[in-house]
Amino acid sequence: xxxxxxxxxxxxxxxxxxxxxxxxxxxxxxxxxxxxxxxxxxxxxxxxxxxxxxxxxxxxxxxxxxxxxxxxxxxxxxxxxxxxxxxxxxxxxxxxxxxxxxxxxxxxxxxxxxxxxxxxxxxxxxxxxxxxxxxxxxxxxxxxxxxxxxxxxxxxxxxxxxxxxxxxxxxxxxxxxxxxxxxxxxxxxxxxxxxxxxxxxxxxxxxxxxxxxxxxxxxxxxxxxxxxxxxxxxxxxxxxxxxxxxxxxxxxxxxxxxxxxxxxxxxxxxxxxxxxxxxxxxxxxxxxxxxxxxxxxxxxxxxxxxxxxxxxxxxxxxxxxxxxxxxxxxxxxxxxxxxxxxxxxxxxxxxxxxxxxxxxxxxxxxxxxxxxxxxxxxxxxxxxxxxxxxxxxxxxxxxxxxxxxxxxxxxxxxxxxxxxxxxxxxxxxxxxxxxxxxxxxxxxxxxxxxxxxxxxxxxxxxxxxxxxxxxxxxxxxx
Amino acid sequence: xxxxxxxxxxxxxxxxxxxxxxxxxxxxxxxxxxxxxxxxxxxxxxxxxxxxxxxxxxxxxxxxxxxxxxxxxxxxxxxxxxxxxxxxxxxxxxxxxxxxxxxxxxxxxxxxxxxxxxxxxxxxxxxxxxxxxxxxxxxxxxxxxxxxxxxxxxxxxxxxxxxxxxxxxxxxxxxxxxxxxxxxxxxxxxxxxxxxxxxxxxxxxxxxxxxxxxxxxxxxxxxxxxxxxxxxxxxxxxxxxxxxxxxxxxxxxxxxxxxxxxxxxxxxxxxxxxxxxxxxxxxxxxxxxxxxxxxxxxxxxxxxxxxxxxxxxxxxxxxxxxxxxxxxxxxxxxxxxxxxxxxxxxxxxxxxxxxxxxxxxxxx
Lengths: 478, 364
Hints:
By secondary structure, chain A is of the alpha+beta class. Chain A has helices at residues 26-33, 37-53, 82-106, 111-114, 120-124, 172-185, 187-193, 201-211, 234-244, 281-284, 300-305, 323-327, 329-337, 354-362, 388-400; strands spanning 57-59, 68-70, 73-80, 146-153, 159-165, 222-225, 247-249, 254-257, 260-265, 268-271, 274-277, 310-312, 349-350, 367-371, 380-382, 405-409, 415-420, 423-432, 434-437, 441-443, 448-452, 466-473.
């Protein structure tokens, strides 16, 4: 099935510019050749049915039926040679270290501001900067315990950071489930090819969570706080809780008394020490943030401040994945670590800077414009693929609210052979590795490869018609 | 165990049991019609109306349908999305409860329940129903029994399991009383009828079959079917797994596993009420029941079962705590309920924290 595959320009993960298989795909190609078309179709169907039957689905917002969809899964794996991965790993570790130092700094002395590296205005105007947490000591100084950083590759195959998700990144359950599905579909391949395992994610996550327990207590009760069954990532929440063997709780299961957090059980109240929360800051405590939140726990922030409970991620980490702050990450790395960034950013223009804004407004049809605080592919303009009217609409928005917008040149994401409508064609992919910070930094090999299933599309978000692939990091380089 | 989790497990089990019982009730009555002669509209209504009444959703029914025709009743009990107790809605609710406690269930149990849910929400379900209702009901009954088996064989028999058992047997006892009550209008108010004609005998055997009790009944009483024996069997038999006495026995055992109270003692109202009701069934006779009036007795039994459910809710699920944050808690609870009600209004499936019909006034 791969025989007639040809890259259609841009960087292709599997074949080089001459159309030859890259060395780290050769073993796979050899084995995959032996899979006949009917066999492949049967495997594809089995995998889809399994996903649906197991309820590995996400909820589609705005669907009155409460419909659930499976996240489309493509059977052709994305393969990364080990040397390349080591480089990525170093880059990500460097980045998370800098981000945690940055968060500590801006919630304390703000040295980086005083030294003129980042203008104060950008921080104070950040939607996710939480003044309430200035001078608060976060357990072990770890603000971001779980980070999902999106990587893309430019036309020469260089890895670039597209954005950091330092609030409640999701998708890791798909990494684990995709791997299980692949192992069932192609059991023979793994041993021959030599793929690094990902199964230990849940243990690593639990370790990171226990590490930040209040007062370093030995046997903390850890829970996962979910917004509930209607959240689009609910499957992931139950999945992770089950894998870690911890309770999954909703806001109403928790209860705060005397600045301590308890869960309501059939045997009465039981104390809770660490909360892996999958609820945004805004909703976590109606007495502090949004009053209309029905998902949160009244008094939770107070208990957190009193040091009786730990939260992962901490409150106020959103400022670090503000897209304006993103521009400054290379400077942060230089400033805090005195190192050159191993993984560069995509060149970015800030609409709030006079010169940049001028450039953006003059070049809108060539640029990708993003709202600084949105995620999930919402609120963005892809200049080259937009109508005049859409572009003009964004122009007004940018002029009205420059702080809220950034622009980047259109980077052509690398593409990967993907099964679409009966044949294998190139589709754009990105990569979201998951970085855990605890006693040490731990990154499971690979991450979530998302693929834009629509031809030519570069939007890979699940909410916008994206799918996913298993990501194989090899033990070796071939 | 989290209170919410216990609550969801309890309701999951109840809804599965509910779907199965309605499936049997409708299936048997559809088949019964094949044996009856001279069916004009009036007789048909006389046949179907008691079935709607037995479910306790008479009011809701007449809001949606002008008359109790076979088609209207079966639609109402099987597919109607406005009826929260229809088979389809029961399965959706069971699955929704399961989804909220997905981490507590085994993969096998979840997959089977999800499969049943996907079937019943698919266009295929209607097609099967139109081609052969009994095949459709078979699918539901088999699905429920399969789920029972999987739960029994794969779930850890820990506290959560006893909440599942409590839900299942409470629901089953309730449904048996309701199915037994279907033909009460043909009975004298007090006392057992001396004899029954052939058509009535058919109807009473339908009652037995609605409880999957036909074979078991015959093995004890032989082929003679009369209301006194049917009622004795379905209420007081101590070995038949759908008789009220048997179900309350299991229920009583399950709630004691949760509370830790020994037989003959109680730690909370759940234990007390379950134990008391069981004793009544153990030491009651069918003649006393008929003297009191079967219909009234069944009504009382339903109230007792509801009270046990309410006591369970108070003891384990709803725990009012004194605290300065109390006012917020109350507000939070209210908002939760509103949000779910809003979803209901939008036609989503839902159910938790007793938002389905009411926690206390459970109807079929």
